């Protein structure tokens, strides 16, 4: 059985290091002095619990406004000539972050100014000047004569930040969005494992290190962190060669750590790291990982309905049970958990499995194309999973893969801008039409940089707002 530990590099997380692995380095994000009025030591106030977004990101709206349009004299604002807004409702997707982002028009929606100032209006065509009795109307986006501007593409860019990052470089850490802040816990560089907690404010671009209270938190890597209300539940991980099955709880309002104690006769999951955890109803559902000796494919659920009496239960599943693996990803879509990729320590996998958490039946999805990945990230954006980075069996990938959750097929998109170097063991989080990427490792360098994939004007924003994953129509027929 595999230990999910690389030979000759026992202190490193990566599983596969081919001798021909591409060695790429990253431009280091420059830490800048704070702008005037902002102190590097000043803690950015937190948004109150009433505004907490948590793990569920509500679908917002995109608006088009007449704010950027010149005044149109003598033209009444009727439904045929005013800019309108469109609102999409439902599902986990993008939220319009603040008033600074709303009501931004595109150039194709702006009327073309009349060059002849004597007409005091807008021409609909070159023939409109010959009409002397009818009022001139603005050229509308729906007009056949208006050439529509192409939809903007996704755009990568490196970020500069203020303050000091939690460590010079991190991999196998966790990042969890709480309000407008990304809470970073644990991780490791090339020498040592970090036991600290920090947050990155996505509005001010400020790093702050958190002084925690309560029990002393151990150094961890390859653990999971899940937001439940205003508390972060941390499970598994460790500093090697042994790993943990402890549960830690960090209160994000008091910054106090606690560790629940379980009854001696209660079943407990084996220690592990490189696993996944999703929140489903009152359970934290844990799948797979490795314990330092072997890879795992079991499913455990932590019942958190009673905060004073947490309890573990192993869920027996059936169907197309995945092979034992770690360094995969898992996303909860409704009552189904989508598991992609991973490794048993010998190879990287390309399989997509769906676990129905109501029936506890696994289904192997038959995708037309295959993409091997381990140590990647998978971020839900509407009806897509954005898979970024990871090892493909040959090198650390730079591409962005999209798994369409409606037809369960892969799409590949090429963002514009400056691409981050290929990496794995990083963090990627969606917040207000931006995916933030932090840290990671490429087999040679542990990164301390920060990148943003901007989706705000992208053609790939959610257009399917209500959908259900139907893996049964795409399952592998094993009888063939």
TrEMBL record:
What are the alphabetically sorted keywords of the record? Kelch repeat, Repeat
Q: Which Pfam families does the record associate with it?
A: Kelch_KLHDC2_KLHL20_DRC7
Per UniProt, the ranges with Low complexity bias are 125-134
Task: Please give the PANTHER family that the UniProt record associates with this protein.
Answer: ACYL-COA-BINDING DOMAIN-CONTAINING PROTEIN 4 (PTHR46093:SF3), ACYL-COA-BINDING DOMAIN-CONTAINING PROTEIN 5 (PTHR46093)
Q: Where is the composition biased (Polar residues)?
A: 1-11, 21-32, 59-68, 77-89, 113-124
Q: What is this protein called?
A: Kelch repeat-containing protein
Q: Which domain of life is it from?
A: Eukaryota
| SUPFAM superfamilies given in the database record | Kelch motif
Which residue stretches belong to region Disordered?
1-143
């Amino acid at each position: 059985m595999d230990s999910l530990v690389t030979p000759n590099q026992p202190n490193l997380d990566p599983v596969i290091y081919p001798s021909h692995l591409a060695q790429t380095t990253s431009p280091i994000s420059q830490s800048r002095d704070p702008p005037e009025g902002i102190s590097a030591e000043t803690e950015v106030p937190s948004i109150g619990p009433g505004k907490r977004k948590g793990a569920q990101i509500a679908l917002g709206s995109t608006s088009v406004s007449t704010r950027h349009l010149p005044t149109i004299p003598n033209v009444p604002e009727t439904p045929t000539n005013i800019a309108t807004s469109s609102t999409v409702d439902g599902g986990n997707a993008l939220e319009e972050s603040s008033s600074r982002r709303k009501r931004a028009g595109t150039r194709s929606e702006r009327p073309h100014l009349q060059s002849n100032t004597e007409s005091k209006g807008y021409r609909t065509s070159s023939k409109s000047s010959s009409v002397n009795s009818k009022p001139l109307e603005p050229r509308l986006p729906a007009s056949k004569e208006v050439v529509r501007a192409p939809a903007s593409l996704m755009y990568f860019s490196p970020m500069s930040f203020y303050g000091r990052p939690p460590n010079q470089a991190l991999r196998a850490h966790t990042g969890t969005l709480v309000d407008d802040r990304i809470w970073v816990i644990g991780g490791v560089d090339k020498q040592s494992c970090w036991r600290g907690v920090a947050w990155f404010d996505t509005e001010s671009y400020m790093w702050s290190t958190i002084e925690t209270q309560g029990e002393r938190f151990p150094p961890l890597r390859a653990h999971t962190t899940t937001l439940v209300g205003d508390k972060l539940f941390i499970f598994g991980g460790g500093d090697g060669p042994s790993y943990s099955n402890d549960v830690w709880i960090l209160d994000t309002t008091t910054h106090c750590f606690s560790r629940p104690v379980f009854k001696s006769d209660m079943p407990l999951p084996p220690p592990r790291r490189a696993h996944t955890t999703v929140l489903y109803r009152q359970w934290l559902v844990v799948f797979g990982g490795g314990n330092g000796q072997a890879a795992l494919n079991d499913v455990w659920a932590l019942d958190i309905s009673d905060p004073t009496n947490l309890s573990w239960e192993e869920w027996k599943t059936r169907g197309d049970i995945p092979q034992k693996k770690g360094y995969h990803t898992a996303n909860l879509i409704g009552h189904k958990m989508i598991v992609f990729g991973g490794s048993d320590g010998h190879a990287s996998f390309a399989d997509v499995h769906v676990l129905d958490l109501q029936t506890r039946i696994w289904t192997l999805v038959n995708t037309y194309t295959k993409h091997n990945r381990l140590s990647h990230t998978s971020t839900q954006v509407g009806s897509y999973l954005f898979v970024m980075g990871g090892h493909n069996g040959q090198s650390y990938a730079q591409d962005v893969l999209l798994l369409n959750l409606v037809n369960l097929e892969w799409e590949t998109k090429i963002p514009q801008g400056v691409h981050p170097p290929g990496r794995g063991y990083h963090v990627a989080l969606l917040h207000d039409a931006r995916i933030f990427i932090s840290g990671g490792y490429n087999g040679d360098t542990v990164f301390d940089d920060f990148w943003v994939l901007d989706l705000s004007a992208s053609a790939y924003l959610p257009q399917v707002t209500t959908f259900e994953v139907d893996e049964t129509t795409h399952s592998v027929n094993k009888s063939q």
